[in-house]
């Protein structure tokens, strides 16, 4: 493998992780022919096939599996080296890799801006994905910190709550219940309801509360994004329960209904795999976020702004 390059190994690792040349090309911003060429050159350097195709699916050969494990070790060693160099340089430069759950996109950029102003030499990589995507990235150790509202139960992780994430009942501005107080939760059963897709953490939390009180709602729509649900609510198609943080930019367009047992109490967590050593950059952002979140709440949420509290 004297002629193998680090770039070829990165291309191979992405292709092996995704089981697809196409997805590897998308992740690395390369063309598929470029990925194929890099894999071909690496295969020639190794002297054994790295992939085999059965039907339309791509599988690693034994040599491919060994190389994949070796790549992970190499990249982890490089990360550790970069971390030590960053520590030697202090916070003048370095990289912070964040992966956040979709709903966190409404507030994390506001908490990143001041940090970037404090440390202009730090390069920020921000990935926004769903719960499954976060778990996949965490298992592959692709980021420094993960922001999520549901801590994985089947993974050994360190986690720290840093911000409340209340789920509230959204409705159109002119909804008949908008001016009522202390609305019995039973009245939700008479309303057309818009739910997040099955598997969503928000949906599980809402459904758990409804089941606890033996409430069955009329699910009119199931949508896969908060923005789609907000548009449906604005269009008069029904009501829904979402994180209050999704209202940061357009609070004047919706009503928050004062329904009994809402808001549902949840938290945002900073999460990273147990045993992972945070770089000085990641540790500094970790500590910064704990403090910045307190100021964020004071600036964006008045004491009586959340219905039911």
Q: Would you write up a description of this structure?
A:
By secondary structure, the chain is of the alpha/beta class. The chain is 41% helix and 22% strand. The strands form four sheets. Strands 4-3-5-12-6 form a five-stranded mixed beta sheet. Strands 10-7-11 form a three-stranded antiparallel beta sheet. Helix 7 links the parallel strand 8 and strand 9. Helix 1 packs across helix 4. It is globular, with a radius of gyration of 23 Å. The termini are far apart. The C terminus is likely disordered.
Rg (CA only): 23 Å
User: Could you tell me how far the N terminus lies from the C terminus, measured between alpha carbons in angstroms?
Assistant: 64 Å
Portion in helices:
40-55%
The major pleated sheet works out as: 5 strands, mixed
- The helix count comes to 9
> SSE order, as H and E?
HHHEEHEHEHEEEEHEHEEEH
Shape verdict: globular
Give the number of DSSP strands. Answer: 12
Overall SS class: alpha/beta
- Strand order across the biggest sheet? 4-3-5-12-6
Mean pLDDT: 87
Beta fraction: 15-25%
In the predicted model, the low-confidence regions spanning at least 5 consecutive residues are 301-309
């Amino acid at each position: 493998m004297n002629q193998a390059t680090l770039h070829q190994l990165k291309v191979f690792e992405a292709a092996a992780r995704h089981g697809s040349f196409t997805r590897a090309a998308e992740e690395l911003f390369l063309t598929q022919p470029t990925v194929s060429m890099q894999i071909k050159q690496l295969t020639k350097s190794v002297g054994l096939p790295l992939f085999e195709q059965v039907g339309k699916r791509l599988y690693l050969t034994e040599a491919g599996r060994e190389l994949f494990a070796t790549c992970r070790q190499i990249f982890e060693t490089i990360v550790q080296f970069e971390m030590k160099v960053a520590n030697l340089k202090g916070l003048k430069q370095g990289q912070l890799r964040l992966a956040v759950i979709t709903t966190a996109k409404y507030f994390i950029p506001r908490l990143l801006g001041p940090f970037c102003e404090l440390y202009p030499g730090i390069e920020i990589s921000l990935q926004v994905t769903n719960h499954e995507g976060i778990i996949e990235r965490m298992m592959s150790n692709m980021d420094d910190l993960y922001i999520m509202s549901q801590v994985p139960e089947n993974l050994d992780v360190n986690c720290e709550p840093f911000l409340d994430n209340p789920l509230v009942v959204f409705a159109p501005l002119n909804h008949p219940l908008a001016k009522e107080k202390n609305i019995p939760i039973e009245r939700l059963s008479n309303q057309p309801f818009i739910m997040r897709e099955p598997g969503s953490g928000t949906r599980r939390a809402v459904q758990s509360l409804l089941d606890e009180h033996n409430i069955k709602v009329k699910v009119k729509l199931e949508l896969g994004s908060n923005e789609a649900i907000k548009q449906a609510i604005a269009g008069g198609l029904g009501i829904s329960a979402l994180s209050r943080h999704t209202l940061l930019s357009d609070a004047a367009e919706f009503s928050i209904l004062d329904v009994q047992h809402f808001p549902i109490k949840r938290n945002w967590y900073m999460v990273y795999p147990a045993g992972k050593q945070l770089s000085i950059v990641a540790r500094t952002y970790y500590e910064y976020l704990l403090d910045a979140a307190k100021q964020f709440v004071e600036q964006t949420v008045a004491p009586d702004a959340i219905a039911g509290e």
